[in-house]
Amino acid sequence: MAFDPATGEAVGEPMSVPGWRVDEVYSASTTPDGTRVAFTWWDEERFVNETAVLDVETGELLVRGLPGVDSTLVIGPDELIAVTDQTAQRVALDTLEPRSSLARATGGSWALDVSRDGRTLLNVGWNNRLTLYDLTRDIVLGEPIDAGGAGVRGGYLTADGETLVTALPDGILLWDLVPEHQALAACKMVGRELSAQEWTTYFPGEGQIETCAELAD
């Protein structure tokens, strides 16, 4: 059942799918306009995880599929992210057919977060390894972070996409994800501009500029 978060009132009709076990729903997320919701759950009749998209107002089942997916997250009006222990994919919401692939997230998917602008995605694996994606280019941002621990989700992405929050055994750690802040921190750490060799390695074909001086201004 959907509920209005402002009033607590029920919205639309009850939703269910044959084989559904409400105690084993792994993820639920809605489209930005709140008209459709995607659930991923354990189907006790087929003995496999499955995903269904339903109409919130009528409770109608619109499409089901994606067997074997660990977790899903709607990231726009017509698309969701689906992750298994072997794949991470962009999937069409109306057909549940894959559109494109992302780099594999190690450890499958315990949970997914996406920034409000849809640019940054966080996948938390069952092994508590955190993988960040840039969805504007469908690439992984850096190496996965091992959050460690057992039984506690190791990371969360803030809504603005600018901070990764990790829950470590000895406390909470905040990671600044703003590229300009990271670049300036690197400049301060190294204390110099990029060498000519470093520039040609990381920015091939581009004229070299004094990056750290630009950032400091």
Labels describing this entry:
2 domains, 3 helices, mainly beta, Methylamine Dehydrogenase, Chain H, four-stranded antiparallel sheet, single chain, 217 residues
Poorly predicted sequence stretches spanning 5 or more consecutive residues: none
Number of strands: 18
Output the helix-strand order: EEEEEEEEEEEEEEEEEEHHH
What is the 3D shape?
elongated
CATH fold-level name of the largest domain: Methylamine Dehydrogenase, Chain H
Q: What is the count of structural domains?
A: 2
Q: What CATH first level of the largest domain would be assigned?
A: Mainly Beta
Give the proportion of residues in helices: 10-25%
Please work out how many helical segments DSSP would assign. 3
Structure commentary:
It is a single chain. With 217 residues, this protein is mainly beta. The chain has two domains: 2-176, Methylamine Dehydrogenase, Chain H (7 Propeller), CATH 2.130.10.10; 178-217, no CATH class. Helices cover 12% and strands 39% of the residues. The strands form five sheets. Strands 11, 12, 13, 14 and 15 form a five-stranded antiparallel β-sheet that branches. The model has no long low-confidence stretch (mean pLDDT 88).
